[in-house]
């Protein structure tokens, strides 16, 4: 078994998320110790954004790191455990709203398309949308 970062790096559907982790300086966090729950949008999920918006986010390392940290939760939580909650705080500081049963759980407006990928330092779930913290979403829409 490998770390969250190393496992995600082997999944072709997650190459955009992995590249953003590296650019945003979060790869080491998800490669190291601790227990985390990461939410990885598929490459297709990023197609909802224009090239200009993605470039704006990746050009601003602080904004990018904030966005990445909004996809990471302290502790190892399966979809079954998450489904028993209404919301959870991310490493970025904002909360994600949680709804639905484990088989159809939604985090904000993102659905989990592959749950509970076990790793040495936690777990990750593959999601169908990119999650944006409210502050980043407001700046992006401007």
UniProtKB/TrEMBL annotation:
InterPro entries: Adhesion/Biosynth-related (IPR050904), FAS1_dom_sf (IPR036378), FAS1_domain (IPR000782). Pfam families: Fasciclin. Residues 1-131 form the FAS1 domain. This is FAS1 domain-containing protein. SMART domains: FAS1 (SM00554).
């Amino acid at each position: 078994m490998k770390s969250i970062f190393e496992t995600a790096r082997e999944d072709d559907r997650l190459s955009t998320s992995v590249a953003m982790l590296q650019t945003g300086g979060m790869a080491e966090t998800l490669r190291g110790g601790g227990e985390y729950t990461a939410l990885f949008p598929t490459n297709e999920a990023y197609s909802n954004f224009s090239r200009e918006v993605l470039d704006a986010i990746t050009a601003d390392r602080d904004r990018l790191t904030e966005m990445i940290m909004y996809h990471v939760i302290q502790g190892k939580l399966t979809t079954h455990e998450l489904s028993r909650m209404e919301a959870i705080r991310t490493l970025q500081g904002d909360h994600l709203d949680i709804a639905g049963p484990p088989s159809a759980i939604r985090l904000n407006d993102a659905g989990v398309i592959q749950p509970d990928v076990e790793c040495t330092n936690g777990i990750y779930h593959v999601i169908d949308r990119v999650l944006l913290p409210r502050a980043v979403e407001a700046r992006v829409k401007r």
